[in-house]
Amino acid sequence: MRFLFIRIVFCSLILVSLSNEKGFALDEAFITGDKAWDKCSNLQEKWLNTLHEIVLSSKPHLKESADLSLKWRFTVQKVNSLKFKYLLKNDPDRIIRDKGLRSFMELDWFWNDSRDLGITNPDFLKL
Predict the structure, then answer these.
(1) Of the candidates 121, 87, 119, 125, which has an alpha carbon nearest to the alpha carbon of residue 105?
(2) CA distance 7 to 60
(3) According to the model, what pLDDT value does residue 21 have?
(4) What's the CA gap between 82 and 84, in Å, rounded?
(5) Separation of alpha carbons 44 and 26, rounded Å
(6) Cα distances (Å, whole numbers) of residue 30 to 26, 70, 74, 75
(7) What is the DSSP string of the chain?
(8) What is the pLDDT of residue 22?
(9) What phi-psi label fits residue 92: left (phi over 0), alpha (psi between -120 and 50 degrees) or beta?
(10) For the CA atoms of 16, 18, 24, 30, what is the dihedral angle to 10 degrees?
(11) What is the Cα–Cα distance from 66 to 123, expressed in whole angstroms?
(12) Which of 20, 29, 107, 126 lies 20 to 30 Å from 78, alpha-carbon distance?
């Protein structure tokens, strides 16, 4: 089973590198200007689109579910990008850059941050 997962991941990465076609895309408004974050977001976008294509090619009857899942995952990425932009501007020391990718992408976020971001950016509350 593990070998199958590794093959799927490997094939997905090959498809990402060969694919020029885009399915869904992250909104330009959610690009942060931070090279590391934007590169990770771009890779996530490509990965999600590739997985979407794999599902559609192997299970076309799941198109509606696959589309909803992709839209939801992009919404999560947009929310995270807004959070990142907020931290970058208001408290950049809370962005962890020296403990690996996972620590970098998992933001140090509190309820009052959501409140403050919602006040300054009503789009955040709509997502």
Answers:
(1) 87
(2) 21
(3) 40
(4) 5
(5) 10
(6) 7, 16, 11, 10
(7) -HHHHHHHHHHHHHHHHH----SS---GGG--S-HHHHHHHHHHHHHHHHHHHHHHHH-GGGHHHHHHHHHHHHHHHHHHHHHHHHHHHH-GGGS--SSHHHHHHS----HHHHHHHHHH-HHHHH-
(8) 45
(9) alpha
(10) 70
(11) 25
(12) 20
The amino acid at residue 127 is L
